Amino acid sequence: MFKALVLEQEDKKTLATIRQVATSELPEGDVLIDVDYSSLNYKDGLAITGKGRIVRQFPMVPGVDLAGTVAESSDDRYHVGDKVVLTGWGVGEGHWGGMAEKARLNADWLVPLPANLDGKQAMMVGTAGLTAMLCVQAIVDANVKPEDGEILVTGASGGVGSVAVTLLAQLGYKVAAVTGRAETNGPLLKQLGATTIIERSVFEEPARALDKQLWAGAIDTVGSKVLAKVLSQINYNGAVAICGLAGGFDLPTTVMPFILRNVRLQGVDSVMCPFEKRQQAWQRLTELLPTSYFEQACREVTLEQVAECAEAITNGQITGRVVIKL
């Protein structure tokens, strides 16, 4: 038996309870893992609170991320004692996830834990950090250089945004960070490397088809009217990497930025990201993230505190990463 956070549905309401679960209840998989750490993402918050239609079947153990040690394996790639990390692949949505002391998973979903990271540090990075790295790489691949101008990051105080700010700063970019709590989050974002702090309300005003060119590129985690405003202000030949919809999945914009300013809009997905690209991103993260990131941008909680944190993250009240010690 082991401890797990289990989601069940009753009268169309999601109920989250911590209970003892038998190993025999775990879903099928090639590798049994003793979970050391998980993390709380925005998607996890939606699943646990029931505010979003994330979970596809009940009962479900949430947690799209985990880091742990292989306890059993029927796959030659992984052996007992190996340290591994998992992000994405629908885990915590359609397959029991990381918010439990044990998990049984498909070996194809795993990545060996980078040698210079421990499990807690890996979860400080997690899906958010992997997504941020893929977004930053999209900006680099679009040939947007540090000397071209500032890179805007929306939702900068969240998991993806805070890592993106850090990575961009490490690569020499000047970063303008957009947050809904500039007064409280500004100091931390500046410590992470932001050069400019902007209140989110500025980007919630209706967007023109084209506005003054202000940004060489952008990483957007919000969507909707915020993204529309961002697109209208991107420099000629700029690029925007998008990975979130915290503000909505609509996009009230026009084709003008794309056909008159040659702006590139690049979608970024980390859930189904292929193994090779995923492994490269993890390696790049370990090279770029400074020690200071791990000292500043994390809050560690127990499984018993997760429900409260899930409510907070869906209300925009969490800064940085939340790591769950199992």
TrEMBL record:
Q: Which Pfam families match?
A: ADH_N (PF08240), ADH_zinc_N (PF00107)
Which positions fall inside the Enoyl reductase (ER) domain?
Answer: 13-324
Q: Annotated Gene Ontology MF terms? A: acryloyl-CoA reductase (NADPH) activity
What Gene3D superfamilies does the annotation carry?
A: Medium-chain alcohol dehydrogenases, catalytic domain (3.90.180.10), NAD(P)-binding Rossmann-like Domain (3.40.50.720)
Which top-rank group of organisms is this from?
Answer: Bacteria
Q: What SMART domains does this protein map onto? A: PKS_ER
InterPro entries in alphabetical order: Acrylyl-CoA_reductase_AcuI, ADH-like_C, ADH-like_N, ER, GroES-like_sf, NAD(P)-bd_dom_sf, Zn-ADH-like_protein
Listed name of the protein:
Oxidoreductase
The species this protein was found in: Photobacterium iliopiscarium
